[in-house]
Amino acid sequence: MKNLILNTLKKKIILYHIQIQNHSKFHIKKQKKKKHYTLIIVSKNFLKMNLLKRHQFVYNILKIYFYEYIASLNLYLYTVPEWLKQHTKTHKNFLCMRDLHS
């Protein structure tokens, strides 16, 4: 499912950094198919969007997976300048898009 989310996002968003974490294992009640994901996304697509618009944009891209695969989704969405300013403080373990191709 992580690869499906990643590939879907890559088709619609110019990704600078992304981290996809499955937090389902921390839930008391386990679901077989639907999972709890946290996404950290850094993109220049977010430059002219406020936080609400960013969330709507990402939810709209991933909405096809909510019925069957995603129980909940936590989003941390940054522009590149915001990320460069913030990332040393939080979210240190991220996957860089450049690392995917090496």
Can you offer a commentary on this structure?
- It contains four helices and four strands, in the order αββαβαβα.
- With 102 residues, the chain is an alpha+beta fold.
- Helices cover 33% and strands 27% of the residues.
- The protein starts with a helix and ends with a helix.
- It is globular.
- The protein has one domain (2-100): 2-Layer Sandwich (GMP Synthetase, Chain A, domain 3).
- It has a four-stranded mixed β-sheet.
- It has helices at 2-12, 51-62, 80-86, 97-100, and strands spanning 15-22, 35-43, 70-78, 95-96.
- This is Protein BolA.
Task: For the structure shown, list the relevant keywords.
globular; GMP Synthetase, Chain A, domain 3; alpha+beta; single chain; 4 strands; 33% helix
Helix share bin: 25-40%
Q: Structurally, how many domains make up the residues?
A: 1
Overall 3D geometry?
A: globular
What is the tally of beta strands? Answer: 4
Straight-line N-to-C gap: 22 Å
What is the CATH architecture descriptor? 2-Layer Sandwich
Order of helices and strands: HEEHEHEH
What ranges have pLDDT less than 50 throughout 5 or more consecutive residues?
92-102
Radius of gyration based on Cα positions: 14 Å
The level-1 CATH class:
Alpha Beta
Tell me, rounded to a whole number, the average pLDDT. Answer: 83
Strand % is 25-35%
Note the main sheet.
4 strands, mixed
Structural class: alpha+beta
What is the topology, as strand order, of the major beta sheet? 3-2-1-4
Q: Name the CATH superfamily classification.
A: BolA-like
How large is the count of helical segments? 4
CATH fold category name = GMP Synthetase, Chain A, domain 3
Transmembrane segments: 57-78
Organism: Buchnera aphidicola subsp. Tuberolachnus salignus
Protein name: Protein BolA
InterPro entries: BolA, BolA-like_sf, BolA/IbaG_stress_morph_reg
